[in-house]
Amino acid sequence: MTFHKISSSDFENDYLLIAIHSNSESYKLAFEINLKLKTKLKKSNYDVSFKNKNSVFELYKHESETYNTRLYLISNKSLIETKINSLTLFDNQSISTFLVPELKKAQFLMKIEGGGFKTENLIRKLNEIGSIQSCYPAFIKSNKSKYNLIFE
Question: For the sheet containing 15-22, what is the strand order?
Answer without folding.
Answer: 42-43, 59-64, 69-75, 108-114, 15-22, 132-137
